[in-house]
Write a structure and sequence with these properties.
The longest helix is centred in the middle third of the chain and has 18 residues, at 142-159. The two termini are 21 Å apart. The strands form two sheets. The chain has a six-stranded parallel beta sheet, with helices on one face. The chain is of the alpha/beta class and 265 residues long. It has a single domain, classed as Alpha-Beta Barrel (TIM Barrel). 40% of the residues lie in helices and 11% in strands. Residues 1-253 form the Pterin-binding domain.
């Protein structure tokens, strides 16, 4: 899953793809590099970020869905607003990636109705909200607590008529977690696959990697991001959400060839 942030303030690439033309060029580059899914985000969820007005998010996201819906790759929309979910699905989006785990009023209804079809749904765990999530996050047991949350939200979607084939789970690395919390979740990733559902991991360039590297800024965390992606897939991740598509594809091709002991296939 390649990240396409059409935002001026995302933590790693804010402002780089904020214009329609720049975003389109970046999407085309990711397709050429072997991306499987394009994740379009119109609102930054970095720690401390403020909520974006609905109209502004729609203005950023919908034009990208409309221009990319025939690109041959599934389009994911990174949003927690039910109105954006409905509009994006109507415009041709294939997946809703919700950092709030479909907890906003109307979110479950937006993705479970007839109009949502069989669009994929990514349920993410976040403690508190982006404004406060990194203020001394605490857990009794981070793996158990995150797993319990993902199970509860999955059950809510199932009760609304959503079938398991549509659901992917995301532990929410960096969303209300310390570096130690994130590393424990990654190490115990198989436990988070509630009922065998696929797991998405988003660690690309995040501050936990910067902490491992002694405080390096986001642009200098590419090698660590590749290592984290390989660690995630080795532990069962079905999707890795990344900034650096070509490098991640290369790293995973190498891992896969070593695992299979052959280059073919």
């Amino acid at each position: 899953m390649g990240i396409l942030n059409v935002t001026p303030d995302s933590f790693s690439d804010g402002g780089q793809h904020a214009s329609r033309d720049a975003a389109l060029r970046h999407a085309e580059r990711m397709i050429a590099e072997g991306v499987d899914i394009i994740d379009i985000g119109g609102e930054s969820s970095r720690p401390g970020s403020a909520a974006l007005p609905l109209a502004q998010e729609l203005e950023r996201v919908l034009p990208m869905v409309e221009v990319l819906r025939d690109c041959g790759k599934p389009l994911s929309i990174d949003t927690y607003k039910p109105e954006v979910m409905r509009a994006a699905l109507a415009a041709g989006a294939d997946l809703i990636n919700d950092i709030w785990g479909f907890r906003m009023p109307g979110a479950v209804e937006a993705v479970s109705g007839v109009d949502a079809g069989q669009a994929g749904l990514c349920v993410m765990h976040m403690q508190r909200d982006p404004q406060t999530m990194q203020e001394q996050p605490r857990y009794d047991d981070v793996v158990r607590d995150v797993t319990d949350f993902l199970r509860e939200r999955t059950d809510v979607l199932r009760a609304a008529g959503v079938n398991d084939a549509r659901i992917t789970l995301d532990p929410g690395f960096g969303f209300g977690k310390t570096p130690d919390h994130n590393l424990r979740l990654l190490g115990q990733l198989p436990q988070l696959a509630v009922d065998g559902l696929p797991v998405l991991v988003g660690l690309s360039r995040k501050s936990t990697l910067g902490a491992i590297l002694g405080g390096r800024p986001a642009p200098q965390r590419v090698a660590a991001s590749l290592a984290a992606a390989v660690c995630a897939v080795e532990r069962g991740a079905y999707i890795v959400r990344v900034h650096d598509v070509e490098q991640t594809v290369d790293a995973l091709k190498t891992w896969w060839a070593v695992r299979r002991e052959t280059i073919a296939g």
